[in-house]
Amino acid sequence: MSEERPLCPVNLTTRCEIRPGDGPRRRHCGAICYEAFATVNGQHGYPPDLPAPEAGVGLLGMMFSHPGYYCVVAEADGRIIGSNCLDERSAIAGIGPITVDPDVQNRSVGRRLMQAVLDRARERGFPASGCSNRRS
To answer: Using N-to-C axis directions, what is the helix angle for 26-43 and 53-65, rounded to 10°?
Structure first.
C-alpha cells in the first residue's frame, strides 16, 4: 500500500486502515456480516442469508482462525467497519464474504478490502480468483 492512504469514509479527518483479521475481531466482523447482508437483502425484498448475527460470528470465526484463509478488516477511529477473506485452500483462490457496515457502505471501504485480498492473491501466485459463496 502507498504512503498516502485514502480518507476514511466514517470521518473525513481520519484515515481508514486495512489490518489483518484475527480471532479477537471475529465477533464484531460477524455482526457486520449479518447486518450488511440483511440490509441489502431487505432493500430488495429478500430474507437475510444468515438467520442471526451469531451465524455471521461463527462463519467469520472459522475463517479468521483457519490457516487456509487470509482475512483483513477495515478500521476507522479504532472501530471495525468491514472485512474480507481470501480462501487459499485451492488452486483458484475464493474471495469473500466481503462485508461493510451498512452505515458506511458506498464510500470505498469495500473497494479497499477487495484490493487487499486481490493483492494477496497476486503475491501468492494464484492464477485466478473469484467470489465464493462456499460455506466451509
So the answer is: 130
